[in-house]
Amino acid sequence: AIVKLGVPSAIPAEKTEHFKKQLDEFAKALVKFSAAAESGTDADLKTSYSAVHDLFEDLAHMLPRKSKE
Fold first, then answer.
1. pLDDT in tens, 13-45
2. What band does 66 get if pLDDT is binned at 50, 70 and 90?
3. What is the pTM of this model?
4. Burial category of 33 from C-beta neighbours within 10 Å (exposed 0-12, middle 13-18, buried 19 and up)
5. Dmax of the chain from CA atoms?
6. How far apart are the C-alpha atoms of 67 and 37, rounded to whole Å?
């Protein structure tokens, strides 16, 4: 669902291209994770999960924060 949404409108214009690239990398990491979950070793699963997690964190940190008012 995250990949299908694309770049949120709240992403500043100067960060849009970087967000797109990270989103593409996230999509690739999800494919690897899915393959590892089906037929990979425990090490493959751990590595692919870490990649998905790290890329998700990168994407989340690019999103603007809501004010706490």
1. 999 999 999 999 999 999 999 999 999 999 999
2. confident
3. 0.85
4. buried
5. 48
6. 38
